[in-house]
Amino acid sequence: MLSFLFLSPLLFGVTAYSGDENDYYENHYGSDENGIRYSPSMQAFYDEHGHDAHLKYLTPNSFDLDVYRLTKRDGNSTDDKNSSNVFDYSENIVHGVNIGGWLVTEPYITPSIYWAAAETEGDQSTVPLDEYHYCEELGTEECQSRLQEHWDGWIQEKDFKQIKDWGFNAIRLPIGYWAFARLPDDPYASGQEEYLKNAIEWARNNGLYLWIDLHGAPGSQNGFDNSGLRDSLNWFNVTENYDLTLKVTYYLYNTYGGEEYNDVVIGIQNLNEPLGPKLKMSEVVRFNYNTYSQLRSTGSENNFVFHDAFQSMGYWDDYLTGSVDPKSTNYTHHNSSTPDYINATSFTDDDGDYYNTILDHHHYEVFGTGVLKLNITGHLLNVKSFAEGMKDEKHPALCGEWSAALTDCAWWLNGVNRGSRYAGNYSNPDGAIGKY
Fold this sequence. Notes:
- Belongs to the glycosyl hydrolase 5 (cellulase A) family.
- By secondary structure, the protein is of the alpha/beta class.
- Helix 4 crosses helix 5.
- The chain starts with 20 loop residues before the first helix and ends in a 34-residue tail after the last strand.
C-alpha cells in the first residue's frame, strides 16, 4: 500500500509588483481563437501537433477503445511485468508525502499568504476563498509576484533531501490546469510548470520518485478550494471546461509520460477527487477511459492513476480491467458542440489488456459528524476496514492522501470563513461534539 500525507505548512512573506496586465498576458501566454491562453511549452506542443490532437483517441459512449498504440504488450501474453522500467507497485513498497500548498495553494496550508490578501486587515470575511479569488482580488500581476516568491521559498531542493533523509521515497505533487492553460476570464498566475520540472530533477538528484497529480480542472471537479475554485462544480457541464481538461491531460502524458522520466515519474494522475456523488458517474467513468486512452496513445507505459471519485470499495473492479476490445468504428470527442468525428484505425488482432492502472483512495477521519463522534477504537476499526477493502480490489490500490487528525478544527480546514463540525459552528445541527 502506498500512503501519502501533507507536509506541514510553512510561513512566508510576500512583496508587491506592478505592471500592465495586457503586457503580462502578452509576455506569458499565447492564445487561440477561443481566447484560451496557453503556457509557452503547451502552446509549442499544440502548434506542432495540432489543437485537436487531444481528441484522437477518445472513447464513444459504449466505452470501447481504439487500440491504435494503446497496448505495447501482446494480447495473448501472460507476462504482467513492465517492459520499459516503469515503476511496479506490486513489487515495491512506497512511503510518500504530498507537497500540498506549493503549486496549488490552499488557505489552510498557506494561511499567511491568504491573510495578506484580505481586503480588510484581520477581517476573515474579506479573505479570498481559493487561488482563483486570491488572484482575482489582487490582480494577475500582483498575484504573479506574490506566488512567484512563494514558489521560490516554500519548497526547495533541500526539502527534497530532508524528505529522503526522513525515510520517504516518493512525492505526490499537486498542480492545477492553470499552470498549462487558462480560460479567457481566468485570473490565475502562471509559471508553475518550471517548478514541476525542478521537482523532477530534485527528485532524481535525491533518489526520490515523483507522482504528478492534476489537482484542479476548469470549472472545478469538486467545488473544493483545493481545486482552485471553491463552491463551483462546472467541469462537465461546460464544454470548454471539459475540452481544456483533456487538452491538459494529453499534454501532460506526452510531455512527462515518456521513458526518459521512468526513473523518477511513477504515475500521472488524471484528476484529483472528482466529486462522484454530485457528478454523473457515467461521465467520470468515461473521463477515465478517455484519459487512459490518451496516455497509451502516446506510447507511454507509465502508470495511469485515477481517483475513486468517492465511490465505495470495489466500485472500480469492473472498469479499466481485463482485455481491451477493439472495434471498427468512428470515435468522437465527448460533449463537443461541434463534434469532430475522427476515423479510428482498427487493429482487431491486437487485444491487449488494460495495464498499469493505479486506483487512488483518500482517507480522513474528520469530514463528518458521525466519524468525529467515534472513540479511538472506532477510528482504528474504520482504518482497518478501509485497508482490508483496498486489499481485495482488482486494481492495485493505494491511499494517496490520509491524516491521523481526529478533529476538523485546523484553521480553515473546511474553508475560509467556516468553522468546524467538532466545535459545532459548521455543518453540525446537533451542536458541538467537543471543544478546541
